[in-house]
Amino acid sequence: MASKFLTEEWAGEVSSILNSHPGFKGSIANADLGIVYNVAGTPNGDVSYFIKTAAGSAELGLGTLDNPDVTVGSTYETAAAISKGDLNTQTAFMTGKLKVGGNLAKLMMHQAVINQWAAAVKDMEVEY
């Protein structure tokens, strides 16, 4: 059964998948990183979610973090396209569809985390 995008159920399923995916686990082994995603214009209004990695595990949930390393803003359309694999995050950034703030050097240092996240959830059933 598909999880509805950007809901508590979706966040829980993504978190579970990430924490059991060997490639993702390897990418966060030494990554202490906090990212907040702000998505505007979802069917449920504006939604924020976060990922926090530390000590080799990840937590993903709805809401925000105090003092995130990076914040990412996008529209629902962009977030859904990235989630579906129809839009690459680098392309979205270069074309202005993603607004990124904070410690960009730290984000680039941990680019494997983002790449492995995409690999881990590519087969997840999501309802948009």
What's a concise summary of this model?
40% of the residues lie in helices and 31% in strands.
Architecture blueprint of SSEs:
Blueprint: E1 3-4, H1 8-20, H2 22-27, E2 33-42, E3 45-54, E4 57-62, E5 70-75, H3 76-84, H4 89-94, E6 99-102, H5 104-109, H6 111-121, E7 126-127
Parallel strand pairs: 1-7, 2-5
Antiparallel strand pairs: 2-3, 3-4, 5-6
Key features of this structure:
single chain, 128 residues, alpha/beta, two-stranded parallel ribbon, 6 helices, globular
Describe the structure in your own words:
This protein has a single domain (3-119), classed as Nonspecific Lipid-transfer Protein, Chain A (2-Layer Sandwich), CATH 3.30.1050.10. The protein starts with a strand and ends with a strand. The strands form two sheets. A five-stranded mixed sheet has the order 4-3-2-5-6. It is built from six helices and seven strands. The protein has helices spanning 8-20, 22-27, 76-84, 89-94, 104-109, 111-121, and strands spanning 3-4, 33-42, 45-54, 57-62, 70-75, 99-102, 126-127. The chain is of the alpha/beta class and 128 residues long. It is globular and about 35 Å long.
- CATH architectural designation: 2-Layer Sandwich
Kindly report the spatial arrangement of strands forming the biggest sheet. Answer: 4-3-2-5-6
Radius of gyration: 13 Å
Largest sheet: 5 strands, mixed
The overall pLDDT average reads: 95
